[in-house]
Amino acid sequence: MLTKIENVLTKEQVHSARQKLAAAEWVDGRVTAGYQAQEVKRNAQVAEGSTASKEVGEMVLLGLARSPLFMSAALPLRVFPPMFNSYAGGQTFGTHVDTAIRQISTTGQRIRTDLSATLFLTDPEDYDGGDLVVEDYYGEHRVKLPAGHMVLYPATSLHRVEPVTRGNRVSSFFWIQSMIRHDAQRTLLFDLDTAIQRLAGIEDAKVKESSVQMTGVYHNLLRQWAEM
Ligand code: NI
């Protein structure tokens, strides 16, 4: 399942994030890439653990915590500290799959990357190219969202970032270990939760009764499947 989450950051937050990141130390993106990804990754990223990374990362995490859609779609157990990259002058990240297990450098804690996230920090009209293309069994999905919006997709997918031929595409990227490891189960829970939310506020005794029962099913499935 690919989920678009609008307004994780406000326009003002995006502006402040861009200012902080512009002043940060940028390094070659290959420092955090695995053996195979190194061959296709051409971008720059903010040094991991830097002050700018921590400050803006905190802003992103607070934005996620305020988003019921993120909570429902990701069912997060752990979120990797957000990182930041930029693509300009034809830079690109060819087709690859994200590393399954990542270690958080500051704490040594490992997370399993169930979901990948890209939070856009540049508006689409400010650059050409740079589409995030995610492949799944239904074909290719192109994603290019307004600044402040985010996409979540299964980290098991092959994906790429197309060359940026004008402007500078700045984004935050990170991974989530979900309480629900399998995308198919997570999608079922998300669909069920969405259906339950849609029934909320309908003043009808039978609807309420069904809604309570469906909520019970939701929690019982979560109880069966969740890993912590
Ligand atoms: Ni990737």
What do you see in this structure?
Helix content is 33%, strand content 32%. It is α+β, with helices and mostly antiparallel strands and 228 residues long. The chain folds into two domains: 3-178, q2cbj1_9rhob like domain (Jelly Rolls), CATH 2.60.120; 183-225, DNA Excision Repair, Uvrb, Chain A, CATH 4.10.860. The strands form four sheets. Strands 1, 2, 4, 5, 6, 10, 14 and 17 form an eight-stranded antiparallel β-sheet that branches. A five-stranded antiparallel β-sheet has the order 3-7-15-12-13. The longest helix has 21 residues, at 205-225. Nickel (II) ion binds at residues 96, 98, 116, 159. Residues 96, 98, 116, 159 line the site of nickel (II) ion.
Main sheet makeup: 8 strands, antiparallel
Q: Compute the average pLDDT.
A: 96
What's the level 1 CATH class of the largest domain? Mainly Beta
What compounds are bound to the protein?
nickel (II) ion
Q: Return Rg in Å.
A: 19 Å
Which architecture of the largest domain would the CATH scheme give at its second level? Sandwich
Question: What portion of residues belong to β-strands?
Answer: 25-35%
Binned, the helix content reads 25-40%
Please trace the helix and strand order, writing H or E for each element. EHEHEEHHEEEEEEEEEEEEEHH
Separation of termini? 22 Å
CATH topology of the largest domain: Jelly Rolls
Counting structural domains, the number is 2
Instruction: Give the CATH H-level superfamily of the largest domain.
Output: q2cbj1_9rhob like domain
- Tell me the structural class: alpha+beta
Low-confidence stretches: none
Strand count: 17
Shape: globular
